Amino acid sequence: MPEMKPVTFTFELPGTIETAWKWLTEEEYQKKWMTGLISLKREDGSTEYSPGSRWHMVMQEGKKQKDYFANMPLVDRPNRFSLEIEAENLAPGGKIKVDYRLTPDGNHTRLDYHSQLVADRFSLFLKLISPLIIMMIKSNTRKMFNSMINQMGKA
Fold first, then answer.
1. Which of 20, 26, 46, 92 lies 20 to 30 Å from 75 when distance is taken between CA atoms?
2. Which tens digits make up the pLDDT trace of 70-119?
3. What distance lies between CA 109 and its chain's CA centroid?
C-alpha cells in the first residue's frame, strides 16, 4: 500500500499524563484546540476509547462540513492510542493513520505524534503536490498542538 511521507512531532505538554490524555481524547477539550472540530462521537454512544471502537468526526473545513470516520485499533490508556481515519476524498482506499504516545516526564508529559496517509494508489497530481500538502499538514499540526499546550498551561 503506497504511503506519503509521515508527519512526526514530539511535544512537551504541561501536566500529568492523565491531564494530557484528557486534552487529547475528550471532546470538550479537543474543541478548544482542534481547529474546525464540530463534533466527535463514538458510533455506539459510549464515550470511552477502547480497541475496535469507531468514531464519527464532523469538521468544518472552509465553508464545508466534512464527515470522517475513525477506527481505534489500539488503546493503552493513558500511554497510547492509534486511529485509522477514512480519507477516501484524498485517495482511493485512503486512510490517515495516527499514533499518539504519551510518556510521563516529571511535571510534564512527552507526546510523540506520528501521522501518515496511506492509500491503494495516489494520483500523479497528488504525488506532485505531496510536498506542499505535507508542509501544510505540518504547519497546521504544529499550530494546533501549540494552542493546546498554551491552553493546558493556563488551565
1. 92
2. 999 999 999 999 999 996 677 788 899 999 999 999 899 999 999 999 98
3. 17
Of 53, 69, 61, 19, nearest in space to 37 by CA: 61
Q: What is the pLDDT of residues 123-143, one digit of tens each?
A: 888 889 989 989 999 999 999
pLDDT value of position 34: 93
Q: Is 154 helix (H, G, I), strand (E, B) or coil?
A: helix
Question: Taking the alpha carbons of 60, 133, 142, 73 in that order, is the dihedral positive or negative?
Answer: positive
* Count of beta carbons in the 10 Å neighbourhood of residue 145: 19
Q: What is the pLDDT of residue 89?
A: 74
Residues sharing a CB contact under 8 Å with residue 115, sequence separation 6 or more, in sequence order: 6, 7, 8, 96, 97, 98, 99, 137, 141
C-alpha to C-alpha distance for 111 and 104, rounded to whole angstroms? 9
Say if residues 79 and 101 touch (Cβ distance below 8 Å).
Answer: yes
Secondary structure of residue 44 in the 3-state scheme: coil
Asked if 72 and 50 touch (Cβ cutoff 8 Å), the reply is yes
Angle separating helix axes 17-25 and 124-154, nearest 10 degrees = 130
